């Protein structure tokens, strides 16, 4: 495997780290823009994979699997920021919109309550995710 080398003889990764450190130091200087490193909001794939154990209940009813409740708790605890909560809401809203009609929506919407978990939004195709703080 080839390693890209900067002129100083150091690997390019080290040079990139030095450049990033320099940018961070300079960002505190007057007249220079601040470098902002943002953490990405929860992805829909994370939300879907975490809540996958809920699918049998949503489809058929019956007992709510413990892994489903654990997944709901996990998503709620991972959604620390407004962006995370809005992202999770949007993911679930999209799923709810695709499952319009039938008992699926009411089962999905009732899951947090059946698991004893408070979720800051209603699982519905009509929820306004932008209103979530």
From TrEMBL:
Signal peptide span: 1-34
Pfam families reported in the protein's UniProt record: Tryp_alpha_amyl
Domain Bifunctional inhibitor/plant lipid transfer protein/seed storage helical: 44-129
Keyword Transport: yes
Family label: Belongs to the plant LTP family.
Organism this protein belongs to: Oryza meyeriana var. granulata
Protein name: Non-specific lipid-transfer protein
Keywords, ordered alphabetically: Lipid-binding, Signal, Transport
Gene3D superfamilies named in the record: Plant lipid-transfer and hydrophobic proteins (1.10.110.10)
SUPFAM superfamilies listed in its UniProt record: Bifunctional inhibitor/lipid-transfer protein/seed storage 2S albumin
Source species, domain of life: Eukaryota
Record's function text: Plant non-specific lipid-transfer proteins transfer phospholipids as well as galactolipids across membranes. May play a role in wax or cutin deposition in the cell walls of expanding epidermal cells and certain secretory tissues.
Gene Ontology biological-process entries: lipid transport
GO MF annotation terms: lipid binding
């Amino acid at each position: 495997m080839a390693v890209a080398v900067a002129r100083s003889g150091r690997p390019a990764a080290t040079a990139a780290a030095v450049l990033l450190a320099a940018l961070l130091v300079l960002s505190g200087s007057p007249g220079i823009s601040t470098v902002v490193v943002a953490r990405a909001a929860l992805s829909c794939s994370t939300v879907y994979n975490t809540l996958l154990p809920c699918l049998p209940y949503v489809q058929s009813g019956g007992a709510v699997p413990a892994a489903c409740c654990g997944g709901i708790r996990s998503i709620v605890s991972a959604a620390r920021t407004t962006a995370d909560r809005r992202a999770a809401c949007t993911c679930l809203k999209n799923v709810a919109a695709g499952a319009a009609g039938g008992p699926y929506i009411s089962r999905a919407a009732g899951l947090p309550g059946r698991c004893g978990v408070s979720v800051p939004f209603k699982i519905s195709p009509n929820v306004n995710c932008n209103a979530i703080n």
